[in-house]
Amino acid sequence: MSQVKATILEVKNLTKVFTVGSWIFRTKIVAVDDISFSLRNAEIFTLAGESGCGKTTTARMILGFEEPTSGDIVFEGVSIHEWKKKRKEFMKKVQAVFQNPFEGFNPLLSIDDIFFETVRNYALASTNDEARRLIDEKLKLVGLRFEDINGRYSSELSGGQLQRALIARALLSNPSLLIADEPVSMVDASLRMSIVNLFAQLRDQLGVSVIYITHDLATAYYVSDRIAIMFRGDIVEMGSVERVLTDPKHPYTRLLRESIPEPDPEKKWKEEITIADTEYEEYLRKGCKFAGRCPEVMSICREEKPPEIMVGDSMVRCHLYKK
């Protein structure tokens, strides 16, 4: 009997409201709308959806870059409000890998200097030799060596090397959680799977938990344990990646699913999903925000926001499944 993994992160009824427009004509946009999910130890959990769905805003709130309008985030049993009092300790445990590897390093500093600075900031070593051994150790985890970055600047490395170096720098403090926001979207297609495989290796070898944020369901299927599909601030479907992407329940998940080839974990995916741009009115829509596009829309969908409904071991937010 397999052992149930402990929960490392809980997101509880998280909401983020932005005010847009002039001081006369202001409109409130609910970018993240009362979402809840949990993350287990040594698990890759994906937040997926098109641009503007709220997945990056969710990540920014977890990292403390955005203040939630309401709700709570609990990391290792402690509320994010308490973690603010010990911000440095929190950032040692929770590290981020962002989308653009070319913006991840100061172009005026050599990459090894940036690594040494990170070691000093977190007091991870007492001598330069000890710091160098630590840096080399983390670089080897991602397929690089200290010699590959020593004295070199970001302009001298490829996008794939830079993204690996960014992951290595994030690993310096031995974090228990990595938040990877579109980490392969700006890497050449031929290198994407090597980066995605790296997250799986970190999960399996180091026990690191990963929140993987992407619009690309193909790589999500390949690497994730569980997945949440977001649309206009809502989580509309959530469950095991196998179940959600091979037998989707929500009409929006089906739309995304139809945008990619048949899932095949042996195949090296290269395709990206292209979906219509964010529609402003969908954020303001009463009821289900997907009602304007849904092929199975009912009158209730335009009036009432669907509740969370369990279908088997997965959650779907859709009136089609109301008893």
Automatic annotation (TrEMBL):
Keywords: ATP-binding, Nucleotide-binding, Transport. Gene3D superfamilies: P-loop containing nucleotide triphosphate hydrolases (3.40.50.300). It comes from the Bacteria. Coiled coil: none annotated. Residues 9-257 form the ABC transporter domain. GO terms for biological process: peptide transport. One of its GO terms (molecular function) is ATP binding. The keyword Transport applies. Transmembrane segments: none annotated. InterPro entries: AAA+_ATPase (IPR003593), ABC_transporter-like_ATP-bd (IPR003439), ABC_transporter-like_CS (IPR017871), Oligopep_ABC_C (IPR013563), P-loop_NTPase (IPR027417). This is Oligopeptide ABC transporter, ATP-binding protein. The lineage of its organism: Bacteria, Thermotogati, Thermotogota, Thermotogae, Thermotogales.
